[in-house]
Specification:
20% strand; alpha+beta
């Protein structure tokens, strides 16, 4: 079973990338959420993966985080949800928004996701609600943190850092402090300190 992959990006699109690993190009299907975290072409990338084996195909799916892979596996465990639908759902919403929709029984929100009709939305709620029990989160707070992180990363890129380096510096900065970062300027300053180490 292929559980992770590391290599150089030689082709890139919002739905899949091709990763060169030792001279072999591996096509990896991805969500928009993972696409947005990818470094630039010819850069090294590391993804968590899930290999889906069918009678007529071997398809590799890649994820920027272990949490996204776990959610993908939960999705495809639901009757009627296949890998393509699972990736479509991951592309159509943030993980916290999806979890909250399941916990609150928000079928209207779920029906807006790619490939999800009323019956599928209801089935998702029934089959996943117990698995998400107690995981309701404040999506506004999460969104604010996400915006600050994105702003800081873009600022570092504008200063000449490559996307992979900028993302890494911002991540290190966040992990280095116990206090809540309220403004992107604070995060940028902290990330720049790491770049000088």
């Amino acid at each position: 079973m292929i559980t992770t992959i590391r290599g150089r990006i030689i082709q890139k699109s919002p739905t899949f990338i091709v990763i060169d690993v030792g001279g072999l190009g591996h096509k990896v299907n991805i969500s928009m959420a993972t696409y947005e975290t990818l470094p630039t072409m010819d850069s090294e990338v590391f993804l968590f993966t899930e290999l889906i084996v069918r009678e007529d195909s071997f398809t590799l799916y890649g994820f920027s985080s272990e949490e996204e892979r776990k959610l993908f596996n939960l999705l495809i465990s639901v009757s009627g949800i296949g890998p393509k639908s699972g990736i479509g759902i991951l592309s159509g919403t943030r993980q916290d928004e999806f979890r909250n929709a399941i916990l609150t029984g928000d079928t209207a929100f779920l029906k807006k996701l790619p490939g999800v009709g009323k019956k599928t939305a209801e089935r998702l709620i029934v089959e996943l609600k117990d698995k998400f029990d107690g995981q309701l989160v404040n999506t506004t707070a999460t969104s604010n943190t996400s915006n600050i992180t994105e702003d800081a990363t873009l600022a570092l890129i504008s200063l000449g850092y490559k996307q992979a380096s900028a993302t890494k510096l911002v991540s290190q900065a966040i992990k280095s402090t116990d206090s809540k970062i309220e403004k992107s300027e604070e995060l940028i300053k902290l990330a720049l300190k790491f770049s000088m180490k």
